[in-house]
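Here's a chain:
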Amino acid sequence: MVPVVDRRRVTALYLLLKNLRKRRRRRIWVHPINQRRRQFGAFHHLVTELRLDDDRHLKYFRMSAEQMDELLSVVGPELARQSTNYRAAIEPKQRLAITLRFLGTGESFSSLALQYRLGTSTVSGSVHTTCRTIESQMLAMQFPKPTEDMWKVIAGKFWSKWNFPNCIGAIDGKHVNIVAPAHSGSMFFNYKKTFSIVLLALVDADYKFTFIQVGDFGRASDGGVFQNSILGRGMEAKDLSVPADNPLPGSGVHGPMPYTMVADAAFPLKTYMMRPFPGSNIPRWRRIFNYRLSRARMVVECAFGILSARWRVLHTRLNMKPENADAVVMATCILHNYLMTPSQNQTWLDEAEERGNVLPAVRNMGGNRGSREAYDVRERFCTFFCSPEGRVAWQDQMV
């Protein structure tokens, strides 16, 4: 007589054997090399020694030991994890150290894992968690909601430092390269023939970001990243507390003039955004305007230079999911504002110039045709820059 086979028992036995095989494969929770991280790992030795040398600590972590301690006090509580019977939790300070080293160099997760004697997944998880924590805990502090007084202070500094009146910021967009995400088609593919996400930023007269937007598709430039951004929609709707039109410094002849941003030719001409006159064979007064606008607009280029010189990860291809890449870029911008020290700006700019690497610019951030009112505002700026009240002594030589 042939015995009857119970399919449910056979299935249960198969699953049990499969689980047992999995358990046999993973005989250890922590690799023996990683178990000796306290004796030989970079965090417990090199990092400790670096605190005794300010210059080397700054080169390694891109910030001083005091700044790192202050940063840890902000994000540390959110990075703490509970130890288990199988493994000890990685302390918040080590998670922060790994993240800063990654942001400062762009080293691979596997390389950092070997240095710190941790698992590769632990390193990647630490970086992503820390970047998101920096964003959640520090974004509102470093990017406060704009007020009318804030815009007026920024405009005053642009006039005193960069000789452009009624200017509330310099704006630009840059590509940050990423490894092509799976099943993304050409959505992230840009005109440079690489895959990227877009970083859009508005910068004040002291190289600090006042607005950032991260994560637009690399190919989205032709659709107008600025016009679809929170900043673009807010400026168009006039709900960002921008002050009312005000006469230019020392002159009421030109009438009330709007507060405006300065941008390159990739951006649209608006009453609230000035772009240069096109072409090279243009009248002298327009060349003077282009020079004065370029002088003010270089602030945003310098800000990107400082950002990428400090955080070299931006010059690599980020090999991670787009949402994780967004968090990494956002964290670098927040830390840029947090660590901004006027006395160190030139050092970072020199490093950026020495390395020669620049983030690729985004093209066609909006339509090229401006309104009649916008053209009139630009012409009135031209007249002001050639008047005794608005001219600077060296502009004639520069054009």
Q: What stands out?
A: The longest helix spans residues 284-310. The chain has two domains: 30-141, 153-398. The chain has a mean pLDDT of 88. The two ends are 105 Å apart (CA to CA).
